[in-house]
């Protein structure tokens, strides 16, 4: 341990207000919402100390140590927000996320921090107010700890941006953390925040969850308002939480969701026997058949065995219509919708450095290798949402929704299961993450939750192995049932494993 890291370790112990004895140490880096609330209620920690502990980990591991580049900007007001919680401890009973330090993907509007989408072209862009969901999180007591780096404009899966650089995967520093919400994923996995938020147009919440041994929930489209979220596609965009446990995902969704669309209490649906008798469709066309797919297939087989052992009935679904690459090529509508939506969004930001997509392109201040092809294609569409091909794609999407509903009904399914990524998350030297399967939820708006399936075989650069995630896709607005299935599965997987690149700052003795 370096002198700087050792000093931070002392700060951590002191700031948490914890005795130096190992048994009294509060493990902020792996803490859950319930554990934080218990520790606050008993006086083991203060909210100020908890927030400082996460800020210390950011200082130690984001721009120093492994230099994950997961955080674009820490919130200078975070400790003041924590102090306010400490002054009103009684609110723990009424504010479900009291003193829960969160990192927000940098396409969520925040009143006190710029929202840039990771782009140098929008550096300093300051929204007038919080996104609607950010306001809900604050009202529930959450602390906005930082804005996370991301794939620029959420257009891709490797989490590289012109403003924040390349985010690294804390489990294997030679690989990407998935994307586009990779900064959130890396930060939560490495214990730089308790939880975070992401957005998902095709894969972008579940890809970093898969690559970082996390839980990522893409909610049913329209369950959570997108007001104040930098857009990509009105047809495909959805948002949701990225957490270390299913219970924390449920707690966050309860707050993030539109109250008039919530069915019951999501936390109450978390039952350890929820998989008994559940029918899970295993989508065969979403498993790879090449040598580079072997590690994911091995891990997924183990995960499917755990589902079966927990009482689930596995049903093979051999349906070519569910093949992800074909769906993406034929039906994805991002380039048709992006320009009009981005132009409208920029018009809502008073000091936006660029006023439209044309200005962003003309500035040259974006990661050209990652984005130029998409941005130029989107700009070239004069009126994308009036093009005949766009309307044809919407018709095919509607037909696909009907087909997916029929697959569920005819097979009497509770959920579909498949690997979110057919191959391991790619090295940072590769420009794209191929073989991702998230498009089914992206096109239909169905909810999907990614849960840790396991790790690949350990290597020199990945001492624990590279994380692999399993997607469970459920019926629209049936998040309670989906969370219940994920929770029951989670009981057989063990606790979150902290990456070896970001160990506890204060080692227990």
From TrEMBL:
Listed name of the protein: Amidase family protein
PANTHER family (UniProt xref): AMIDASE, GLUTAMYL-TRNA(GLN) AMIDOTRANSFERASE SUBUNIT A
The keyword Signal appears for this protein: yes
Classification lineage: Bacteria, Pseudomonadati, Pseudomonadota, Alphaproteobacteria, Hyphomicrobiales
Key words of the record: Signal
Signal peptide: 1-22
Keyword Signal: yes
Coiled coil, from the record: none
Database matches in Gene3D superfamilies: Amidase signature (AS) domain (3.90.1300.10)
UniProt domain Amidase: residue ranges: 50-483
Originating species: Methylobacterium longum
